[in-house]
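Reopening: KAP NTPase domain-containing protein still failing for me.
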Amino acid sequence: MDGDRPILSRTADRLGFAPVADKLAKAIINQTAQEGLVFGIEGKWGTGKSTLINLTIEALRQVGEGGPEIIAFSPWLVGNRSELLTTLFDELAIAATKIDPIEVAEEVSDDTLFGRIKKPFLRDKHWQLKRKEQFKASIGKGLRLFGTLASGLGSAVKAAGDIGMPGAGPAGNALGAAGEAIKNFGNEASISNRKAGLVSALRLLSRPIVVFVDDLDRLEPREVSEVLRLIRAVADFPNIIYVLSFDPSVVAQTLTKAVQIDDGKAFLEKIVQVSFRVPKPDAFDLRRWFEEELSKIFSLNVDNLNETDRLARKRLSYIVDFFGGRYLETARDVVRCLNALRLQGQPVQDFIDIPDMVWLQLVRISDPDLYSWIEDYVVALAAVANGATTTDHQERIDAEDLDKLISKRKDDFHRSISEIGEILPGISDGMAGTDRSKWRVFSKINTGSFAKYVRDKRLASPYHYRYYFSLSEPAGVLSDEAFRLFIDVASIDTGATLVAFSNFVNQTRPQGGVMAEVLLNRIEVVSETVDVAAIPNILLCLANFLDHQNLSRRDDSFLGAPRAWPQAERLTRVLFRRLDQGRRMSTIRQAFGSGKAIGWLTSLLRSETFSHGHYGDRRTDEREWLFGDDEFHVVLETMLARYRGSSFGEVVSAPMMLSLLFGWAQAGDFEEVREWVQANTLDDRKFLSFLYHARGWVSSSNRGVYYPLKKNELDYFLDFESAVQRLYSIASDGKTSPADLDQARTLIEAAALGSDD
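Support: Ran it again with your exact input. Result attached.
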C-alpha cells in the first residue's frame, strides 16, 4: 500500500515538481525580507502542495552556507493558542541562534578615553565572535520570552499587531536594544516597544528564516484563524518568511465562518502577500504512472498473450486512457485508486476482470454515490440472471436515480449512459434521442445476456460480481473451479457425472434451494460454449434427477410447475441442438429409455406431442421442434413402453401425476389410460392414493396454496361424480382406518374446491 504521503526527495518525483521547486526556492531566497514576507502555495487537496513544499525545502537546503534556516511548523500538533505561540517562538529562537549577525560591534570615538581603551578589543576576532554569540543568545532568549509573554496577552497581542512594526534604530544600538528588551520584559513597557527591540535585532541576521506551514486548510476553523492572526499580529518580523500551503477556497470559507466576517478571501489576501498556484499535473503523466503501477499490482505481461488476454489488455488500455483521463485529476487520485486496487483487486485477481475492476475503482474515488448505485444494480442483475423479474416500478426508480447522479456530475447524459453501458448490460438510451424519459435500465435482459460476462468474470457476472465489492464470491454460488471440474468430468465419465450431480441435488443453499439449480443456471448462461463432449452426460443428469423432490418442488413463480423444469427445458433445447445426429439419437435412447425422472421426461414428450401435431391442432414450424420426426417417434415409442411397464407406485409417485397420465394418453390412447386407472383403483387404499396424487396445486392471494381435485381434468380418466360418492362411502364406513378416514375427508374437501374452480 502507498501511504499517500508526499514525497520527500526529488528522486521520487514522477510528475515534474522538482524543477518547479528549484525555481520556487530561488524566488524565496531572492526576496528582500527586511520587512517580513508571507508567501502562499495554493492548490486543492491532493494536488501536491506538500510534495512541492518538501522539494522546495530540499532545494533550499542544497544552497549551502548562504541558505536560509528552515522551520517546518506543524500547528495541528499544538494544543491551544498559548502553546501555539510559545512553540512557534521557541522554533524561531532555535533558528535565530544558528545565524550570525551582519554586524554587532558599535562604533566608538577615538577622542574619548573610553574609546581609546575599548577600540582594540573591537578589532579582536575572538572578542567579536564572543559578541556575536552573545547577540544570538540574546535574540533567542528575547524571542522565547516574547512568545511566552504574547501567549498571555490576549487582546493586547492583537492590538500590537494592529499598531504595526516600528522603524529600526541605528545598527550600532541593535545589541543594546535587544538586551534592553530582555531586561524590560517584566516591566510595564508596551508590547510594541518590546517587539521593536526584536525587530531591530532581527534586521541584522545575515540569513533569513523560512517558516513552512503545510496543510493550513486541514486545521479546524478556530485553529486556522489563530494561525493567521498569529502571523499577522506577532510573527511578522524582518528576515522571517512564511510559506503557507492551503486551498484558498476552503480557507476563505473557514475564515468567513470562524471569524464571522463577510469576505474570508479579502481577509486572507491581507495576510498572504504573494501566492503561487501548484501546477496541475499533466494528465498523460498521471495516466502513465497509473498504468505502470497497474502492471506491477496485477503482474500484467504483454508477451505471449492469448486472444482473450489480448482483448482484455486492449480494454484496460482504453479504460486507463479514457476514464483515467476523466477521473485521475491529481496525484492523490492516482494513489487512492492504486491503493483501492491493491486492497480490492489484487487478492481476487483470478476471479475478476481487471479492466472492469479498474473502471469500478476509478468511479469509486470520483463518485461514491454512483459506485453505490452500480453495486445495487449488479445485485439486481444477478437476481435477473437467476430467474427473477424486475418490475416497472423498480426499473423506473433505478433509472431516475442514475439520471440524478449523472446530472449532479454535470456530464453529457447520453455519453455517460453509453460509457456505463459499455461495462454493464441493460443500460441504454436506445432511440430516445433527446428525450431522456425514454431511456431504460434492465433493457432487453435475459439469461443469455450474461454469457460473455460470466465467461470473462466481468462485473455484471452473477457469479463474480461480489468479488468486486467484498473480496469473496456471492453466497451460495458455484465457484469457477467447481464448475470447470463438473464440465471436465461430464466430458469423460457418465457415472462420475451422475454422482457429482447427485451431490449438488442434495446440497442446500443458504438462500434456499439446492446447488443443482445454481449449476443448471450456470450451464444455461454459458450453454453456447459448453464443451460438446459434456452435453450428453449433462442431459442424462436432467433425465435422472429432475423428478427429485429438491428439483420438482413447486411455487407460484412458475404457476404450479416444478420450479427447475422450465429452466431445464430451455437448457435442453440449447444443448441438444449442439449435438451431431449420432450423439442426439444415442442420448435420446439413454435418457428416455432409462432416465429415472419419468415426470420430467413426460413434460418434454408432451411439448413435442403438440409441436409435431401428433395430438391436437397446435403443430408448429419444424424449426421450433426439439426432436426431428425420427427422433420424436423413438421418444414416443420408448415412453409408451415405459408407461405400460410401470407399476402403480411408479406412476403415482411421479411429480404432477396427472400430467404423466395426459402425456401417456396423448401419445397413445385415452381409453387405454382409463382402463389402467380403473384396474389399479379397485382397492380403496389405491383409490385414495390415486386421488391424493391427482390433486392440483394452486396459489391464491386469498387462500394461499391449496390442492383441489379438478373435475375437468379427472373426468378424462374416471367419473368424477362417482369418485366423490365413493369418497363419502369410505368416510362413512365404520371399518375405515383412521388414516384412510382423514385422507378421504381431505379429498372430499379437495373435490369441493375443484368443483368451485
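The longest strand covers residues 240-246. If you still see a failure, please send the error message rather than a screenshot.
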